[in-house]
Amino acid sequence: MNATAPAGTPVTVRLRPWSPDDLELLRRTNAPEMTRYLGGPETEEALLARHERYLRIDGDAGRMFAVVLDGTAEVAGSIGFWAQTWRDEPVYETGWGVLPEFQGRGVAVAAARAVVREARSRGSRRHLHAFPKLEHAASNAVCRKAGFVLMGACEFEYPKGHPIRSNDWRFDLAAAEGSPAAASPGNG
C-alpha cells in the first residue's frame, strides 16, 4: 500500500521502533501545521532532547515508533506510548503525528490500533489515554475510530506548565482484544 492508494482502501501500517535515523521525521512533525494544537514548534535544542528521550524509552516505560505503511518503506509519521500518572492511577499516554501527505487516509487510526496492541503486549498498565484538545476534531475522531472511550473533558498540561482543555479518551488494555469491554467506560 502506498500513499496513492484509492480512497476507501483500508490502510495497514507497521510500527518500527524509533531509531537514530528518525531525527528528520521528528523535525518534519515539528512543523507549524503539525504542532498547531500542541503549542507550536519546539526549538532545535528541545527536539534533540526529545529525540534522545525517544531513543531511550523502552519496556514498561513505553516505546516510540515510526509509522510505516505496510509493504513499503514509506514513513508516514510517529506514535508512541509512555508511562504517566493520571488521577492517581499509573496509566499509559499516547500521542501521534501523521505527515501532511498521509493525512485523511486512516493512517492515524491504524497506528493508534497498533499502539494499543503494543501497549497491551509490552506494558503492565491497565489503561491507555489520549488527550487531544477539544477543538482538534481530527485527533478526537482518531480516538473514537480506534476504539477509545470518551471519558469527558478535562484540564491537561501540554506542554508542561501550559493548561489546555482536552478530551480524555481511554482504552482498557486489560479487556479481551476485540471485546466491547475494551472500550467500555465502566471497566476500571
From TrEMBL:
Keywords: Acyltransferase, Transferase. The keyword Acyltransferase applies. Gene3D superfamilies: 3.40.630.30. SUPFAM superfamilies: Acyl-CoA N-acyltransferases (Nat). It holds the Pfam family Acetyltransf_3. Residues 13-174 form the N-acetyltransferase domain. Belongs to the acetyltransferase family. RimJ subfamily. This is GNAT family N-acetyltransferase. It comes from Actinacidiphila acidipaludis.
